Structure prediction request, 205 residues.
Amino acid sequence: MSESPIYEGILEQARKDAEVILANARREADEVIQAARTRAEATAAEERKNTSTRLEGLRLREESAVRSLERQEELKNNDAAWNAVSESVSAYFEDYFRSAGSRRTLVLWIAEAAYGLGLAEAKVSWRQGEQVDEGMLEEASRLLKEKTGFSVRLTPDAQHHIPDWGVLLSSPDDKVYFNNQLGVRMRRMTKDIKKIIQESTCKAE
Prediction:
C-alpha cells in the first residue's frame, strides 16, 4: 500500500527539520570547540607569560645573590688585605721609630702637626722609645718657617708619652691638640690605601 501524500510530506518535513537541527548542532559544537580552543590558547599564553616572568624574577634574584656574594667576598678579601697592611706597617715602624733613621720622618711629622694645630706655641709628646730631642723640635720649627712662613715655639712634653708611634702636639693648656700618631695617619689615608688594595686585587684576578 502506497503512502499518502500527507504522510510523505510529514516525513520530508521531519527530514528537513532533522538536517537543520543537525547542522545547528554541528555549528554550535564547532563554536564551543573553537571557544574552548581560544580559551585554552589564551590560558597557555598567559601561563607562558607568567612562567617567563617568574623565570626572569628568579634570574634577577640569582644575579643579585651572586653579586652580593661576590661583593661580600671582595669586602672580606679587602678587609684581610687591610689587616695585613696594617700589621705589616706596624711591624715595620716598630723597628723604624726606635732607630736613628726615623729622625727625619719625625721632624716632618712634628712640623706637619704644628702647622695643623696652628698655634704660636705647642707641646710635643711622643712614644717612649722614639728618638726625639729638642734639636728635632728646633729643626721642625725652622723647616715650618722656611716652607710656610709660620712661626711656632715647640717644647718637649716628656712627662706624657703617647701609646702609638708618631707625635701628638697640644696647646700649653691641653685644650686643643693635633694627633699625628701612626694609627691616626693610617686612618686619614684609609681611602687611598683601600683604593690601592682594590686595584691590586683586580690586577691579581
Summary: The beta strands are 121-126, 153-156, 166-170, 177-181.
